[in-house]
Design goal:
The structure is a single chain. The protein contains 14 helices and 17 strands. With 473 residues, the protein is an alpha+beta fold. The chain has four domains: 65 residues, MutS, DNA mismatch repair protein, domain I, CATH 3.40.1170.60; 125 residues, no CATH class; 105 residues, DNA polymerase, Y-family, little finger domain (Dna Ligase, domain 1); 121 residues, no CATH class.
Length: 473
């Protein structure tokens, strides 16, 4: 199964375009055409053409940048769809699939009927698909890309053997243009000149060297479900069923060394309505005894209606959680994570924040605020000089000269300077625009007052004035 317009078909299925359309990909600092629809190819545009030349030939060309990640996901969904025809389905490059239909074709009435069904379904889905069916994987690839007649395999060009462009050009210069010509040539000179790859591809297409199909395994599904013979509605009953579903789900997470970050409990009522209870965890978990109490608040708010007859529990977001050695020297942050999860169910996990160090010598920019559950605490600030525990906007005080005042008033309190340590000159970051630092340099002093307060003062030499900006512990 070859999808020659996989990238463009993915976009056009969601937003059809009447006219030429192309997917562009940047290569060597040049935007080039990566995939085209039929209308663009009829106008003479080809893959690999620069986007500027394409717009000169076709001013009405509509384009979008390539998204290889989305195309890989689209091909993965097509692979899952292809398993309806046989269980052995694998990827073939970035735009193809390979199926081993041995023992499965008779279920569709034969190979011809199966290929017709595949082609019709792909056409209805808006996909351009070319099929090739043969006794070997290499021959099937050749028929899908260069022909459809199984009896004409020796007459196909040598490019049908999945060789690179340079090797194909070199073979054509020697007069070996078809697979028949290559098969009739002496093997020893070919091996010495081109290496073993050419003969290996030839033998694979002819069936002399096996080339098995390696199917991809589906990612594990972390979901459990239970259908109830009689409807339930009490919170205790729902929590009991949830506990029974959590046990096998956590066992599956443990086998794959994964932890759940988001769990969704779906409760289906007898009237075919459903309600969901979403639990977002502050850290990956797979301990049923810790997760179950966190569902109490959400389950208590569920309207059971005339009863609940089916409950489904799914881990919609998982993260790696490798096994750890637990001992006396092991400190576990489980209690803190559980606390953040409980608070997050009420106010939202994004609203629980922590301070993180930032790379700046400006006091106001020496930290950043990030959600605690989506960040990790740093080792701490690396400062050559001590910094106050409390930092607030500068508050002016009365003072003259470049040395700290002996007495001053701050926040309606009188203070007497007992000890002054400084100055520490901090210059503004010239590459950033900050209205608070437009005054220029600042000379910071650590002041120990006789009243017991330890304050952080600074003086502005260019515009004389004294300010209090922080307080030490």
């Amino acid at each position: 199964m070859w999808f020659p317009r996989l990238a463009s078909d993915r976009v056009l299925r969601a937003r059809p375009v009447d006219g030429p359309f192309a997917i562009t990909l940047k290569s060597n600092n040049t935007e080039r055409l990566y995939c085209l629809n039929v209308a663009a190819e009829r106008l003479g545009l080809t893959r690999g053409m620069s986007f500027a030349d394409a717009r000169a030939f076709c001013p009405d060309l509509i384009s979008q940048p390539a998204r290889p990640d989305l195309e890989a996901r689209f091909l993965a969904s097509l692979r899952r769809w292809a398993t309806r025809y046989c269980p052995w389905v694998g990827r073939d490059g970035v735009d193809g699939l390979v199926l081993d239909v041995t023992g499965s074709a008779h279920l569709w009435g034969g190979e011809a009927e199966m290929l017709a069904d595949i082609q019709s379904r792909a056409t209805r889905a808006g996909l351009t698909l070319r099929l090739g069916c043969a006794a070997t994987r290499g021959a099937a690839w050749a028929f899908a890309h260069y022909g459809a007649d199984a009896a004409a395999l020796p007459d196909l060009p040598v490019a049908a053997l999945r060789l690179d462009a340079a090797t194909v050009t070199a073979l054509q210069r020697l007069g070996l243009r078809t697979i028949r010509d290559l098969a009739s040539a002496a093997r020893a000179p070919l091996a010495r000149r081109f290496g073993p790859d050419v003969l290996m591809r030839l033998d694979q297409a002819m069936g002399q060297v096996p080339e098995p199909v390696m199917p991809e395994t589906d990612p594990p599904s972390f979901a459990t479900r239970m259908s109830l013979p009689d409807p339930i509605g009490l919170t205790e009953d729902v929590m009991g069923i949830t506990a029974r579903l959590l046990a096998p789900l956590c066992d599956r997470l443990n086998r794959h060394e994964m932890g759940a970050r988001c769990l969704v409990l779906t409760l289906r009522r007898v009237d075919q309505g459903s309600q969901q209870v979403e639990l977002r965890l502050a850290a990956p978990m797979r301990d049923p005894s810790r997760i179950l109490p966190l569902f109490t608040r959400g389950v208590g708010e569920v309207d059971a209606g005339f009863g609940i007859d089916q409950i489904r529990l799914e881990a919609t977001q998982v993260e790696p959680l490798p096994a750890q050695q637990i001992g006396r020297m092991h400190s576990s942050p489980d209690q803190l994570n559980d606390l953040m999860t409980r608070i997050g169910t009420r106010i939202g996990l994004e609203n629980i924040q922590r301070f993180l160090p930032a790379d700046s010598h400006i006091p106001e920019r020496s930290f950043s605020i990030a959600p605690a559950v989506f960040s990790r605490p740093d080792n701490g600030w690396s400062c050559l000089r001590p910094r106050p525990l409390r930092l607030f906007p500068p508050e002016p005080i009365a003072g003259q000269g470049a040395t700290p005042p002996g007495q001053f008033r701050w926040r309606r309190m009188a203070f007497t300077t007992g000890r002054a340590i400084g100055p520490e000159r901090i210059a503004p970051e010239w590459w950033l625009v900050d209205a608070a630092w437009r005054s220029g340099l600042r000379d910071y002093w650590r002041i120990e007052t006789r009243e017991g307060r330890r304050l952080w003062l600074y003086h502005t030499p260019q515009n004389p004035g004294w300010f209090v900006q922080g307080e030490f512990a």
